[in-house]
Amino acid sequence: MTQHHFPESFVWGSATAAYQIEGAVTEDGRGPSIWDTYSHTPGRTLNGDTGDVAADHYHRWAEDLGHITDLGLSAYRFSIAWPRVQPGGSGRFNQAGIDFYSRLVDGLLERGVRPVATMYHWDLPQELEDAGGWAARETALRFQEYAAGIVGALGDRVHTWTTLNEPWCSAYLGYASGVHAPGRTEPAAALAAVHHLNLAHGLAGRVVRELAPTAELSVTLNLHVIRPASDSEADRDAVRRIDALANRAFLGPMLDGEYPADLLADTASVTDWSFVREGDEKLIAVPLDVLGVNYYSSTLVRAWDGVSPRSDADGHGASTSTPWVAADNVDFLPQPGPYTAMGWNIDPPALTELLLRLRREYPSQPMMITENGAAFDDVVSADGRIHDDRRIDYLRRHIGAMADARAQGADVRGYFVWSLLDNFEWGYGYDRRFGIIRVDYDTQVRTWKDSAHWYQRLAATGELDQTPD
Ligand code: FCB
User: Is this prediction's pTM over 0.90?
Assistant: First the structure.
């Protein structure tokens, strides 16, 4: 067993998202979002679960801040529900909603915990979807207005502003495969959504720069580590194509100031990208203080040979429509285990690889891991404890993988475990538990799992015992 020591300055945090924990969806003037509509549509979520009550965090936020303090964390990543602070997505702001986040932010600051606020973790006001959603350019302009409202109210009390969480999911799962809200299956709309999310990021980023000049600016991407099934040219080209859709469609405009040429060429049969206007790409490339990276598992692809049975084991849910626009010749292969309860393969070295790639391509860009964690079928033992050894093992290996990347020069400054609490896991409802703290959904009682105790020790000491792979 090797030992890794993290410096005092390294940030240990936990992450959540509004719709997954808050509940109280009709309280104090909150308007409906696409996730309310989607989860209330029969057949969309496992067991018909919705976020109506979730972990009741809207009422229990003070207790939850207590857990963050007791864990000894130095940062908390949460998201602001757009429909809570601006119910219709344009025009009038809702003071009661702003007050909720203002209390939360002040509560964190009083406890010495850095607020890391995500502006958009997938809960688009329904009115904006009715007007075209992310496929419409107007939505990016509305996002700029929303950003000005919340940054104006919370300003630099928020330590780090994150514009978007995983725009890959918003665009492709929301508009191409339809396994996320709003559940559309329109490939051209998905690519338009990619661009309008990027544009929203650039516009909101500039709002942060202007209204909260001392706050840090970030975005969170779920970057894919894509491996070829063989070294053949065709398989390597499959990797290139998926890398363009998954990674470079966002990294390109955000960090290089332009869309990659191969992405535009690959998708020419679906769209001519005429929704990208003169000057947009430069606008999107607002410099970031820190790039947020979410990582859970890796991806294995091969070029389809035209005869083998198709394989779509990409880990992104079952749908008859693919999220991979214009990539019909690519197969996603099942990976060797072990797996989490999401069916995702456990591949810590891929995290090291990802961070080193980012260091190579963007050497001066600081990073943080804004999500990493695992769902397992937790069991409450007779002693009332949850001995979630597999989750501890997952966390230990991934934090070790991050440490390996740091040792090789990757500038990773923080780590946020997903998640603080068990919560509404989107299409999988309450069936999949990611928390280091268990939530009993009948009573809303919170119970620390063994992983919470383990994480508390790590945050306190900075000492990680690495098990050899
Ligand atoms: C990410 C999401 C987060 C959570 C985890 C498991 O894609 O950002 O909300 O659902 O996956």
Answer: yes
